[in-house]
Amino acid sequence: MKITLHHAHEARSMRVLWLLEELGLPYELQVYDFFDKSLRSDSYLALHPAGRVPAVEIDGQVMLESGAIVEYLAERCADMGLGRAPQSDERMAYLDLLHYGETLGQHLANLTQAHIVLYEPWMRSPTQMGLETKRLAKVLGRLEQLLSDGRDYLLASGFSAADVAVGYGIWLAPRFVHLDALPHVAAYRARLITRPAFAKALPPEGARRIYTQAFYEVPNV
Ligand SMILES: N[C@@H](CCC(=O)N[C@@H](CS)C(=O)NCC(=O)O)C(=O)O
Predict the structure, then answer these.
(1) Which of 19, 77, 152, 183 has its CA 20 to 30 A from that of 83?
(2) Which residues belong to any copy of the GST N-terminal domain (predicted)?
(3) Is the pLDDT at 64 greater than 80, yes or no?
(4) Could you report the per-residue pLDDT of 114-161, keeping only the tens digit for each?
(5) Residue 103: which of 161, 165, 45, 58 has the closest Cα?
């Protein structure tokens, strides 16, 4: 497979980068600055008309949705064992959890916009920021419940592409929500971020990041 991943550090394209590393697939990486409008260039918009990352070119075809890309690549590399076959008992849970990554993703994106993209205080709504924070905590609550039986990863059988899709959000979540009340999620996060493939998906030293604060507090109203 010839793969080119279009990526911005710390954006959802990290899911694809992480999975490519888990699968040991060769790829070319094109990195864009999240803030400098390079995702709005004519050449990038020709690839992704909405100007988002990821975009991935695979053997001349283009995919634009990180969950679908993760699912597809896990299927293409079935022998690596990160997908779950259509007839397997875990198939339903696998797909359900893999796509739950975007339920986390929507709140993280809204919080990123509110805390970081809308940089002037007057642009922000503390009410909306507080609500999104609570909704993110609630979404994490489902995972806390799932992991409370002592499993290491989302599926009882072990690490899968669903952990990559969800894991991006789990990595990011503590910038917005304290994990003290979610001990199983916190332990799961610690397991995920020590995976060598995850470390390779992080921005290199000195790269411009989206998230520069350890925690983004909701302003008092
Ligand atoms: N559901 C899409 C969302 C893609 C998306 O919105 N990516 C964000 C980064 S996390 C982006 O490119 N934002 C740039 C922008 O909105 O200008 C996916 O998971 O691939």
Answers:
(1) 183
(2) 1-81
(3) yes
(4) 999 998 989 999 999 999 999 999 999 999 999 999 999 999 999 999
(5) 165
Buried b (16+ CB within 10 A) or exposed e, 114-151: bbbeeeeeeebeeeebeebbebbbebbeebbebbeeee
Task: Say if ligand 1 is within 6 A of residue 51 CB.
Answer: yes
Model confidence at 221: pLDDT above 80: no
* Separation between Cα atoms, residue 130 and residue 152, nearest integer Å: 31
| Amino acid at position 130, single letter | G
Task: List domains and CATH numbers for the chain.
Answer: 3-80 (3.40.30.10), 91-201 (1.20.1050.10)
Interatomic CA distance for residues 192 and 170, integer angstroms: 9
CA of 54 to the centre of ligand 1 (A): 7
Give the number of other Cβ atoms within 10 Å of residue 48's Cβ: 16
Q: What is the number of the ligand 1 atom nearest to the C-alpha of 39?
A: 17
pLDDT tens per residue, range 171-198: 999 999 999 999 999 999 999 999 999 9
- pLDDT recorded at residue 119: 85
- Residue type for position 60: G
Q: Is 66 exposed, middle or buried (0-12, 13-18, 19+ CB in 10 A)?
A: buried
CA of 89 to the centre of ligand 1 (A): 32
Residue 3: strand, helix, or coil? strand
